[in-house]
């Protein structure tokens, strides 16, 4: 794949959303859900972007978590993070489909 500054910026923004979810899931579920929905609405406006595309970030996210946690990142942690990732992806995909169906425009910067 050719280097794309725009793609890289979007990937970093999505990683920031994932980081927010991981950091806030246990104390701000409403904020987490809002962040995921806002992200999905933003992406629903991008032509030819499908929720399944979020899946391409699963392995890079797991790798980043491994590097951050070093030897403390056990198999059970990886399994838990993969389950969390699939939940985030499913929630964003359903929100994207809902936004497209309803014709909502959503909007705004999802990385606030």
The pLDDT mean sits at 82
Largest sheet descriptor: none
Task: Spell the H/E element sequence.
Answer: HHHH
Number of strands: 0
Pairing-aware structural class of the strands and helices?
mainly alpha
Keywords: Heme, Iron, Metal-binding, Oxygen transport, Transport
Family: Belongs to the globin family.
Organism: Ridgeia piscesae (Tubeworm)
GO molecular function: heme binding; oxygen binding; oxygen carrier activity
Give a structural overview.
The chain is mainly α and 112 residues long. It has one domain (8-102). It contains 4 helices and no strands. It has helices spanning 5-24, 29-44, 58-69, 75-102. Helix 2 packs across helix 4. It is globular, with a radius of gyration of 14 Å. The termini are far apart. Mean pLDDT is 82; it is low at 104-112.
Compose a concise summary of this entry.
The chain contains four helices and no strands. The chain has one domain. Helix 1 (5-24) runs antiparallel to helix 2 and helix 2 packs across helix 4.
Q: Which key features would you list for this structure?
A:
112 residues; mainly alpha; 4 helices; 68% helix; disordered C terminus
Describe the secondary-structure layout.
Elements: H1 5-24, H2 29-44, H3 58-69, H4 75-102
Helix pairs in contact: 1-2, 2-4
InterPro entries: Globin, Globin-like_sf, Globin/Proto
Keywords: Heme, Iron, Metal-binding, Oxygen transport, Transport
GO molecular function, one term: heme binding
